[in-house]
Amino acid sequence: MDTRQRKALRRIREETDFEDDRVGGTDNYVRLGTLGSGIGQGTIGHLLSLGLIEAGPNRFFNETGYRITKAGRDALNEPQEPTPTPRRRKLKPMPSRLGEPKSRLD
Fold it and tell me: 29: how many CB neighbours lie within 10 A of its CB?
């Protein structure tokens, strides 16, 4: 799972928990439009195929909504592989285009 999919899964978890607490139900499905930018059908389709989210009807807008599954919650709790930090290159000084430096006494 890449960072975009992890971000989408985290956002779906937050919205699902918010809707379940606010409305008082346990089967609320979150619309795609409330998840924010950068989360599209490709990302949602991949998460669906992995079984991390499930699709169902949103009870307020008559649209398809999504909610996180237990497997999705478990996937978010797994430790993420650390990304290696790139090594900084040492800069080599370039020769001056003005020639050798001179002092006031030269």
Answer: 22
Alpha-helical runs (H) found in the chain: 3-23, 41-50, 70-77
pLDDT tens-place string over residues 74-87: 988 877 777 788 88
Angle, vertex CA 42, rays to CA 47 and CA 2, nearest 5: 55
> Radius of gyration over alpha carbons of the chain, in Å?
25
pLDDT in tens, 25-79: 677 888 888 887 878 888 889 999 999 999 998 888 888 899 999 999 998 887 7
Q: Structure tokens of 72? A: 């999705």
What is the architecture, at CATH level 2, of domain 3-77? Orthogonal Bundle (1.10)
Domain chopping of the chain, boundaries: 3-77
Tokens of 14: 């937050």
